[in-house]
Inverse folding.
């Protein structure tokens, strides 16, 4: 009986997360249409591993999709959230360099990019997007397996959110799918209790480039 209850618990929470997020996951083109009137405060691209000063393939796909959304007019701001906990590992700087390099042709400049160097987890990124960067309406970019949890977190912390899936990397996908099972449970309870990350800091409101001085 215990084993059955445990399985039901794990499956039930994962289904809650997935089914809550599923209606909010749309294509890049549909996102542009859905947000045309209300606008979007930022395109939130979630970090992943980097190697030798370059983003991993999975992260590059996320950044490419974020650049695509920028080009479609979804938002004039990209918020890049990742891990810069130590001096010798800086996801967000590598992410920013990639976006500047690949987005130059559509007008992305330094003024269009904000970085969250304390995006140590998917849940942290959602909370900090709202509380530190003071966003209200966001479009989140990551791979679909991860997007359910990311969108669920954002919705539960009070963001008006859509999610757009970046291209998958098939190699090793089963491992990523497996890791998501307990990760969804963890974030379900973090959002349930309204946990506040220890790494918050002062508010840094997003300012649209057209309103910046200089």
């Amino acid at each position: 009986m215990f084993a059955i209850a445990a399985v039901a618990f794990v499956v039930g929470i994962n289904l809650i997360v997935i089914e809550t997020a599923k209606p909010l996951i749309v294509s890049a083109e549909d996102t542009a249409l859905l947000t045309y009137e209300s606008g979007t405060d930022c395109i939130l691209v979630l970090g992943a591993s980097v190697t030798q000063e370059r983003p991993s393939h999975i992260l590059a796909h996320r950044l490419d999709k974020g650049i695509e959304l920028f080009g479609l007019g979804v938002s004039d701001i990209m918020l890049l959230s990742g891990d810069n906990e130590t001096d010798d590992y800086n996801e967000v700087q590598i992410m920013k360099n990639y976006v500047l390099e690949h987005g130059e042709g559509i007008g992305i400049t330094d003024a269009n990019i904000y970085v969250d160097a304390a995006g140590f987890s998917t849940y942290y990124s959602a909370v900090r997007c709202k509380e530190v960067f003071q966003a209200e309406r966001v479009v989140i970019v990551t791979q679909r397996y991860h997007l359910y949890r990311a969108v669920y977190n954002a919705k539960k912390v009070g963001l008006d959110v859509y999610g757009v899936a970046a291209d998958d990397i098939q190699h090793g996908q089963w491992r990523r799918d497996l890791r998501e099972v307990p990760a969804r449970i963890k974030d379900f309870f973090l959002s349930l209790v309204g946990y506040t990350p220890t790494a918050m800091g002062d508010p840094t409101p997003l300012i649209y480039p057209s309103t910046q001085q200089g």
